[in-house]
Amino acid sequence: MTTAPAYADAYGAWKRDPAAYWAAEAAGISWTTPWERIFDPTMGAFGQWFAGGALNTCYNCLDRHVQAGRGEQAALIHDSPMTGTVTAFTYRDLLARTEKLAGALAALGVAKGDRVVIYMPMVPEAAIAMLATARLGAVHSVVFGGFAAAELSVRIADARPKVIISASCGLEPNRVIRYKPLLDAAIAMSPHKPDACLILQRPQAEAPMTPGRDHDFVAAVDAAAPHGCVSVLATDPLYVLYTSGTTGKPKGVVRDNGGHAVVLWNSMKMIYGLDAGDVWWTASDVGWVVGHSYIVYAPLLRGCTSVMYEGKPVGTPDAGAFWRVISQHKVKVLFTAPTAMRAIKQQDPEGKLTKAHDLSSLDALYLAGERCDPPTGIWAHELLGKPVVDHWWQTETGWPITAGFRQFGLFPFKPGSGGRPCPGYDLHALDDSGQVLPAGTTGNLSLRLPLPPGCGPTLWQDDANYRRSYLADFPGWYRTGDAGLVDADGDVWVMGRTDDIINVAGHRLSTGSMEEVLASHPDVAECAVIGARDDLKGQTPMGFVVLKAGVNRPEADIAAELVALVRDRIGPVAAFRDARVVARLPKTRSGKILRGSIRKIADGEDAPVPPTIEDPAALDELRVLLAE
Ligand code: COA
Ligand code: AMP
Fold first, then answer.
1. How far does the centroid of ligand 1 lie from the alpha carbon of residue 573, in Å?
2. What is the pLDDT of residues 545-571, one digit of tens each?
């Protein structure tokens, strides 16, 4: 297959003249005011795209498709094995519901620039809430439902929302999760209080309302007048999405309106090969960036039909669930995390459950969220007989950094590689002094500034932290925090993080924040959390604690308390189930805990004794403990 020249043409066109490239791409978006400057290097932390331009993202997702005659096409299909329902919303329907919710929010005082926190399970109202907020030119901040009250509270305190939209409950297999008590606790903990909450009552567990603050979602929408689109600057924020940083405090990644709309619109065709009218399914959650970009915004910007799935790859009801959804809705491209494929493979290794379903609509499977391990990529490729494309990105970029491109013709299948850089990204591996490394050499994967449109231009009200976190180490570059290499063909291999962020079932978590929780236990003197290899989830956290002198309570009790504490403070999503008491932690002579060595031992790898180690016996003790 020699289709790479088309890719090379597009990438080369961008490299030769980025302004002309982005001007052409921006023609896919309806602007209320054309931009004055394609890129303004004086704005923000590294410059901003489409300066002076104005638009409304919700208009581009909904109104313009209805005006263009797409009103009767399904925009969103909500498929919930948790409730046994499938509900399709046409573009006309989705617009009408969004206009009304925008009216309800406006009636509660939400206006351009105000924040709205959305803490909801995978219900269609979550997508409608995002679009309605965008319609008003307000800024949403969606918080994943698997986070605990304390994490929600930190986000409320930072974003200072005027209104919070939530639901009475979420549905996990065999478990109803009451969201409302978590929301109430989070608001109680936060120094900032919202003016109002809109609560979607779900019949599985209705929630008591707080008089004067809480409003019934459905009643408020019914009573509201439809609201039109408020034009905002391309450089105004569309949303803030908090993601794990290296400390306990999450980073509020800002997404602007203009660049975001342009790149997402473009990516649906360039990367995934989809046109208006095609059916697309991203099996993720609206609480993650993948859900923001590819459940809600990109498919709607392009005029596609987006499937929103409230279920799991396995257990709802079985490992054939994904194949059922593909065949029932005639999905053309599926995007999910490798962990979902591993879960299916574990339960149905021969893929027998595919046989019951017609998968002929499926053209390709795209994977992201973590590196796709080659055995899983090969398994899916052989099972489906369709291209399997691993592509790499992060919350900060909002769209893929590297990918395979259906518009240009896919690259030859190289299991384990994340594809090649999308036009817009000048990607290199750098050594620790910031020098570009030759092809094939592993280093700090970094992007030469400026970042392309769509990438987070800053952190919420914290330019300084953005510069410190991403731009300071290598002047002129954005440091991704991932290690990897670019091979001689230009294919990129992303091998893991260079910081203490771990990926658990495609969910990004900070071991630093878990250490903060463990350290807060009264019996703990010091601790370390590492991400150990896990066959299903990719990584799972493991905690090691040294107890304070004189503590002689049973270790099992303390370990159970630590597990409960992380669940209570961070949430079930942390999947923290393994806490071990140790006599001491391996450290360097300067007192730095050797987390890399601990991880290697936990993974059963050779962990050479570093020359700087204070006491080599500490490593031997760990080996013995973990071998038990
Ligand atoms: N609200 C509340 N709790 C949630 C939740 C939500 N939205 N999502 C997950 N949880 C809970 C789960 O119920 C589970 O709780 P438990 O400890 O009581 O069992 C815990 O958080 C961990 O969830 P998860 O990591 O999803 O593990 P799992 O064992 O339930 O399922 C997979 C494993 C692989 C099936 C599942 O992680 C999956 O489908 N992953 C797809 C990957 C994905 O969507 N990634 C997003 C980025 S692309
Ligand atoms: P998130 O911000 O939650 O999307 O997580 C981003 C991080 O997940 C990246 O920095 C990588 O460490 C990892 N990641 C996401 N997709 C991939 C991929 N395709 N290959 C390797 N790592 C990935």
1. 6
2. 999 999 999 999 999 999 999 999 999
